[in-house]
Specification:
This protein is mainly α. The chain has 15 helices and eight strands. Among the domains are: 89 residues; 130 residues, Hypothetical protein af1432 (Orthogonal Bundle), CATH 1.10.3210.10; 74 residues, 2-Layer Sandwich (Alpha-Beta Plaits), CATH 3.30.70.1350. The termini are far apart.
């Protein structure tokens, strides 16, 4: 607005100056006419008149502009006053709203019995609890997803390891059989008044059973090394033909010396088969003794070699130290070779033995932790545990007593029979599979699928078994018609 007024004033000043100049010039012209000078030509007078008319017109326009500017200024003043009035009204309305807000808060505080600060704290507490609840729910979901992913990966790793390592399993017992060239040798083994067989049993610590079995002598002992020494002694005596107490003693010590060399060779073959280098010679010798030791019918040395391969495969899959896992798995049961000489669990005995012969702490710890005598602290220790369980749990790896076998079959059939709609249950393949025959009128195809899943989960929760058990639900539908 001030700019417009300034411009208008400048215009007025220009017009006034023009008027003054125009009025002075005609007077001078008239004076010049009155003077005794030559008269101006008529066209100049017409030009002056035209200019005066233009100036008058400009003056009129200037007055009109001034009037318009005055009107705009008045309108702006009016609008400014209106804005000021509205601003005052807004401020008054805001003050009223603030007063009402304060009144509402006071009323809420009176109704709730809490101050604004207390209500804020209560609200924050509620929001915090809700956030923690949501966070816990999300955390449980993440944990469940992580467990499912971990289980899938574990199953994949174990299946790959089992497929890549299909080792044979030796099911040795507590007896050995020595074949005789003829039944006449039985009398010579017994000797006059039984002196030969007594000498054999006293030296070897093994029971020599000579019965009606044709052309055979049975050697019975829990110690596999003693049983092997007795077998080698008897075979040497049969080859030599001279059987008497002095010769028996000489042959016994000869066989014992040969067995020591044989155990060293067995240990060297084991470390070569397992891919382990730099093992102390004493550990190699002790490891070879495991060839004559069984656990649940499974040869311990073969089990140790299999564990070494399994542990190396799993360590490679998980990015752990394959060297540590391989050595610890090969040596994890070495304490069984000296368990009758040293007191304590074989895992701890084996760990101490490994430390004394230069093995690293990581290897010794993994050996000690494979039966949880100590808490596993490394990934390799957990891998050795898994390899040990996997080698022993595979079908055919270990034997079980007849009572346990029958009980497991009975428990499987009983567990499946208790469900409604089940007609018959058969345990197949030595308890590795059960076949459940259901009544077609009571169980639909969809329910049959759900039933197999339910029975499998109940077996996992209630029974202990090696390997896996296949559950097959059979629902038969028959269509019968007669041709007449």
């Amino acid at each position: 607005m001030e700019t417009l007024i300034g411009l208008a004033l400048v215009g007025v000043a220009i017009v006034v100056a023009a008027l003054v100049y125009g009025r002075q010039r005609p007077v001078a012209t008239l004076a010049a006419v009155a003077a005794p000078a030559p008269a101006e030509p008529a066209p100049e007078s017409a030009e002056i008149v035209r200019r005066e008319a233009e100036l008058e017109h400009s003056a009129v326009r200037t007055q009109a502009l001034e009037a318009a500017l005055d009107r705009r200024g008045a309108d702006l003043d009016r609008r400014e006053a209106e804005l000021e009035r509205r601003d005052q009204h807004v401020r008054a309305h805001a003050a009223e709203l603030e007063r009402l807000r304060v009144q509402r808060e006071e009323a809420l505080e009176r109704v709730a019995g809490l101050s604004a600060g207390q209500a804020k704290q209560a609200l924050l507490k509620d929001v915090e609890e809700a956030a923690r609840h949501d966070a816990g729910r999300v955390l449980r979901q993440v944990e469940e997803e992580t467990k499912r992913d971990a289980e899938r990966r574990v199953r994949s790793i174990l299946s790959v390891a089992m497929q890549r390592l299909a080792a044979s399993h030796a099911a040795e017992t507590t007896v050995s059989v020595v074949q005789l060239p003829s039944d006449d040798m039985k009398g010579r083994i017994i000797g006059r008044e039984g002196r030969n067989i007594r000498a054999l049993e006293n030296l070897t610590g093994v029971d020599f059973i000579i019965d009606d079995t044709p052309n055979a002598v049975v050697l019975s002992a829990f110690d596999g090394v003693r049983r092997e020494v007795a077998r080698m002694t008897l075979e040497k005596l049969l080859q030599d033909g001279r059987i008497h107490p002095a010769r028996i003693e000489e042959t016994y010590y000869q066989a014992k010396s040969e067995l020591e060399s044989h155990m060293v060779e067995a240990g060297e073959e084991a470390i070569f088969a397992a891919g382990v280098q730099g093992l102390d010679p004493e550990l190699v010798k002790v490891l070879g003794r495991l060839k004559f030791r069984t656990s649940y019918g499974q040869n311990v040395l073969a089990h140790s070699i299999a564990c070494a391969h399994l542990a190396a495969l799993m360590a490679s899959e998980l990015g752990a130290s394959t060297k540590t896992a391989r050595r610890a798995a090969l040596l994890h049961d070495i304490g069984k070779a000296v368990s009758h000489e040293v007191e304590g669990p074989h895992a701890l005995v084996g760990g101490d033995l490994a430390r004394r012969h230069g093995e690293s702490e990581a290897v010794a710890h993994a050996m000690e932790a494979h039966h949880n005598e100590v808490e596993p602290q490394t990934v390799e220790a957990v891998i050795v545990q898994a390899a040990d369980a996997l080698s022993g749990a595979r079908p055919g790896a270990r034997g079980e007593s007849l009572e346990q076998y029958v009980k497991r079959l009975r428990d499987l059939e009983k567990l499946a029979t208790r469900h409604d709609g089940v007609d018959k249950v058969y345990a197949m393949q030595a308890g590795r599979e059960i076949r459940v025959i259901v009544e077609p009128g009571a169980i639909t195809d969809e329910k049959a699928i759900a039933l197999s899943h339910t029975i499998a989960r109940e077996i996992e929760q209630e029974l202990e078994y090696p390997g896996q058990i296949k559950v097959t639900v059979i629902r038969e539908s028959r269509a019968v018609d007669y041709a007449k």
